[in-house]
Structure formats: C-alpha cells, structure tokens
Write a structure and sequence with these properties.
393 residues, alpha/beta, Rossmann fold, Dihydrodipicolinate Reductase, domain 2, 8-stranded mixed β-sheet, 3-stranded antiparallel β-sheet, 12 helices, 14 strands, Tail_sheath_C, Phage tail sheath family protein, Phage_sheath_subtilisin, Tail_sheath_structural
Length: 393
C-alpha cells in the first residue's frame, strides 16, 4: 500500500481566504455623566456597570446630588454602562475640566450634564449656555448625543414658544442648536430618597436609560419614544401637558414627556435640536442622527486597515464589498424600511468619489446613501479615511 504523501492536502477541499474584512458595529449606549458628587476622585472618569458601584464610588441619593439622581435613573431605566466624572466645584470651568477628562475615551455615545439645569442649584444662564456649547462640540467630535434637561424657567408651553421665537431661538436659551443634542421637558416627579414628598428632577438621565433599553431591544435606528418608552420610577410630571400643547412643543424641536391613562409616564418625542418643523433638517429625528453616527463610527473603524493599501481599484473594490456587506446585514435586521437593498442603501468608492488631489495624497473617500425613514429617500454620508497614494511603493 502506498503511504500518504505528507505534503498532499488533508482532504478534497482547499481553504482560500476571501479577503473580506467584516465591519463590526460599535456600541451605542455608553452614557457619560459629569457633575458634582458627595465623594469620589475628581476629574477621573470611571466606567461603572451598575448603581451599587456608583453608590460605592460617588455616594448615593441621600445627598441630593443631581448627578447621583441622573445616574440612578439611567440604570433604573435600562442603562448598562456609565462613565461618571465628578467635578471639583460648581461652575462652568469645573464642568469644562470634567468634559476634558472624557476626551481620551473612545466609546462615549450619550452625554448628560445634570447640574446645568437642576432646579434650585442651576448655573447662571450665561455659564450654563457656555457649558452646553462646549458639551455639544464634544459630542460632535466624538459622534455622541447630548441629552439636555429643559431650563428651570421653562414652566410651561408659553415660555418655550417665547424662547423659540427670540432672535437666537432655542440655541440662545440652551447654548446650542446642534443636531447632536436633544432637550426634554418637563421634569419628572420621583420618590424622595429621604421619604418626603416626590421631588422634581431632570429627565435626561432617565431618557439615557430609555435609549439604552431601546437600543438593546429594537436597535439604535428605533425611536426611543412612544408607549414602549416608559420612564421607570416616575410618579408623574411637574407640568401636565394637553394634546395640543404636546404638538406645539414637538413642532419646535423640544421633546415632551407625557402621562398616559393608567399612570405611566413616557417619552413622547424624539427630535434633535434641529428638529423644528420650520428647519427642514435631515437630522430632524434622534434615531436617524444616532443611526448615522453609529454607521460613521463603525465604518471608520472598520476601514482602518486601508491605510496600508494603495489607493487604487483593488482597494476600492474591497471597500465597496465590506461596506455593502455591513449595510446588508443591518437591512436584514430591519434597520432600513426598503423592501430591497437597492431601496435601502448604496455604496460608492472610486474615481467618482475622489479627486486627483485625494488620490495623490492618499485620501480614501467612501460615499454612502442610506434611507432610514422612507425607501429610496437617501441621506448621503461621505466617510474619509486614509490609504497609501496609488503610486507609493
């Protein structure tokens, strides 16, 4: 009997690498909180996975800290990972230092500033606007979403409409009109940890938890609002809104909370600060904006290997293949309303997306169209990465 050839294949099949580099979706619901606390290190971001860890590091609810209350409400409503930064003093400069401590973290997706509009201890208006402006800039740099509590002087719909009608609009009242920011009104009434009557607290921490819960159960492309977006632990609202008032406020780009029959309190709006009907922005809705931020970050990270490849057709073909596979998987998961992939997205990468200057300098440009709201109504993204110039050895 002839012995087997040791160099022959082990079986009838030969494995050939496809060359595909699958793009992985990044996380979407790590929430950062910056503010005053009873205890803990100052200007040191700690990543914590439950409320007991927050109590241990920063103190509990008994001290009345808006930061502690916001983080508590985040975990109670479905949050799983929180980055908490304790600032050293009350004021704009301390908040800026707290934000600076987050700069090195790559995975912050949501940002809450509980001290800025906290009833009774809120900052002077000018300082609050400056902090919010800096926080919005942070979120734009890091592809994150800023969740704001409504200013304490928004005591009803008339006050909101007056702010929107002013020369600077809501940006003048809040400090930003960024598409990476959303504001929530009114405050939530919740149990006093000392056993007294319910107290009014900002809703942003709880909303961050609702967003995390929605991401986990339905996806980042789903609206964190409606009857499924109940705020756990709420005992009502400090301002009750009628149906017509809800409509008036939502049309201005302000997200309302609502009390449903039976006592449930829910998030009833999902608009960014560019979400006013009159603005006509493509970033009108929070889920659309967050979904695009998720896509940009995922694809940007997933194409980092391209920096070692010549900026030529073989690379472009690989990029088109990998990005298309990623988007096709999301389409199968229900991220797009289109019945077919062609109605849901397209991917372009080649001489039609790059200038000669781009090619000469190793700039890789991928153009992506996605239809997150209606089939074939595309939002266009241009993602810029790096590759070797085509003639670089």
């Amino acid at each position: 009997m002839t012995p087997p050839d040791p160099e022959a294949p082990a079986g009838p099949f030969e494995e050939i690498a496809s060359g595909a580099r699958p793009i992985e979706g990044v996380g979407t619901a790590v929430a950062a909180f910056v503010g005053l606390a009873e205890a803990g290190p100052i200007d040191v971001p700690l990543l914590l996975s439950d409320w007991s860890a927050v109590e241990r590091e920063f103190g509990g609810l008994s001290g009345g800290s808006p930061l502690a209350r916001a983080v508590h409400d985040y975990f109670e409503n479905g949050g799983r990972s929180a980055v908490v930064v304790r600032v050293g003093a009350f004021g704009a400069e301390a908040e800026w230092q707290g934000l600076a401590a987050l700069e090195s973290l790559p995975d912050v997706n949501l940002l809450v500033l509980p001290d800025v509009a906290a009833p009774g201890t809120r900052m002077p208006a000018e300082a609050a606007r400056a902090v919010v402006s800096e926080a919005a800039a942070f979120c734009e740099r890091h592809r994150a979403m800023l969740l704001l509590d409504a200013p304490a002087d928004w005591t009803g719909v008339d006050a909101i409409e007056a702010a929107a009608a002013s020369d600077d609009g809501l940006a003048g009242a809040l400090g930003t009109d960024s598409a990476n920011a959303a504001v929530y009104f009114p405050r939530v009434r919740t149990a006093d940890p000392l056993g007294g009557a319910p107290v009014a607290v900002g809703a942003a921490g709880a909303v961050a938890g609702v967003i995390a819960r929605t991401d986990a159960t339905r996806g980042v492309w789903a609206a964190p609002a409606g009857t499924d977006a109940a705020i756990r632990g709420a005992a009502g609202l400090d301002v009750s809104l009628k149906d017509d008032e809800l409509d008036r406020v939502n049309r201005l780009g302000v997200n309302c909370l609502r009390e449903l029959p039976g006592g449930s309190t829910v998030v009833w709006g999902a608009r960014t600060l560019q979400g006013a009907d009159a603005a006509g922005s493509e970033w009108k809705y929070v889920p659309v904006r967050r979904f695009v931020l998720f896509l940009e970050e995922s694809i940007d990270r997933g194409l980092r290997w391209a920096v070692f490849e010549p900026n030529a057709e073989p690379l472009w073909q690989s990029v088109r293949r990998d990005v298309t596979a990623f988007l096709h998987g999301l389409w199968r998961d229900g991220a797009f309303p289109g019945r077919t992939p062609d109605e849901a997205f397209f991917v372009r990468c080649g001489e039609d997306t790059m200038t000669q200057n781009d090619l000469d300098n190793g700039r890789l440009v991928v153009e992506i169209g996605i239809a997150p709201v209606r089939p074939a109504e595309f939002v266009i993204l241009r993602i810029r990465s790096h590759a070797k110039p085509a003639d670089d050895d």
